[in-house]
């Protein structure tokens, strides 16, 4: 038996046969050619076919994992249209009189190296994407069948093991036959990890499984404890079968908590809301019985579009969410782009320190037309449900005052056009140490605070949340962060503001009791965590010290 430790991309337990996906060692040979024109035409035909395949993959992914997560295949299609990439392939064919396969492989390597050398973590990860599209074109050129698939006659479900999985490979796998993912490489921020989470499949990354291969062997993935067992002994198998059954039993029991209150044994109540990225997540919010939406990351509407989403498109999205939530609160966070969330058409300059740069509310208060369009769409949608608005990355009272002036203009415009809207609660995200320290002043200006612990931790500890090297010291339990949370609750309450948490820490069950004792009014967590936190709350007794 081998017991190998990795990093958790998504929790859960899987037991079953391992299927190793080894990329066929596509050794690309350099072949001298006579007719460069014909070779370029052959390359272009292969590129077109690869683009067609990607379009098919995009459609499949939209259905299975939603638009936001399928967007990567659009990025791949765009890469295949990139003039620099295409020119490089054509030049190599022409200048060196070599076969298209060799030209594509060389270009793919060069571009991947270029991306890998960039400072920005997001750009670094694009190296895998450029390799992925190059391999696709080479495969088409060599007229090979796409290899990655677990469909067909195979009835068994598998633990998929691979060096790394490109997003295109992940989405091609027949989900109903995948028990878990285990990869040697990859980071928690990679698209593949995100896809695994969305697919609700246990996944481990950074697992150094044996070079000689694990295909066909028996395996256990412990996505709670980051362990991968190969050929486990009978005792381990029995132990994990029991754990898996207990876990499933827990999930079944949690279903019984639907419709129940979020109340402690001693009668303290708290609101449990859900975080979403778009309209397609609402079904999951309702299925898990969330009391509202505590964070609608509206920037995903911008990330999914090729150009600024119009007022109409935004209005339609916000209205649908408000209507589907049928009167339950929907807190829309205004555009939070910049830093790791880059949108090409905004034309933002590359910055030395993007997390501390031109982002979020700073962009909105500078490019007010974009901001006004969004606010108008939100106010129009407010008529159809219970909408609240919150603003990201606030550092001063002055910003809040400016926001209110802009809102007054937007409302005046709607009045003039005879468009109905409701009054909405206004809140801010507390995710900078500055906002924490002046939360007494900010509380006089707004109806609520929602603490973004992901950014608050990064700015308080001066640790880039995107940097995998610092993963182990990025600690949201740090006493400095916890003291800040308490300070914000107290300052908010003194002025009649309600206070919640919408960062990942809100779903940390080891702190649920602490949050209740601190007096939080709301926790907003991913939809799949709602019932677990409800369970935790209902088993807490604050009268016992
Ligand atoms: C946060 O910073 O905690 C937060 C909820 O916002 P995001 O993760 O989108 O930056
Ligand atoms: Mg944030």
Structure description:
The protein has 545 residues and is of the alpha/beta class. The strands form two sheets. An eight-stranded mixed β-sheet has the order 1-8-7-3-4-5-6-2. It has an eight-stranded parallel beta barrel with strand order 9-10-11-12-13-14-15-16, surrounded by four helices. Helix 13 links the parallel strand 12 and strand 13. The chain is globular, with a radius of gyration of 25 Å. The structure holds phosphoenolpyruvate (PEP) and magnesium ion. The site of magnesium ion has 5 residues, from helix 16.
Short description:
With 545 residues, the protein is of the alpha/beta class. The protein has helices at 36-79, 83-96, 100-116, 121-141, 167-172, 191-199, 234-255, 282-287, 299-304, 311-324, 360-366, 368-382, 397-416, 433-437, 439-442, 453-461, 479-494, 512-518, 530-538; strands at 2-5, 7-10, 13-21, 158-162, 178-183, 203-205, 218-222, 227-230, 271-276, 292-297, 329-333, 386-391, 425-430, 448-451, 498-501, 522-525.
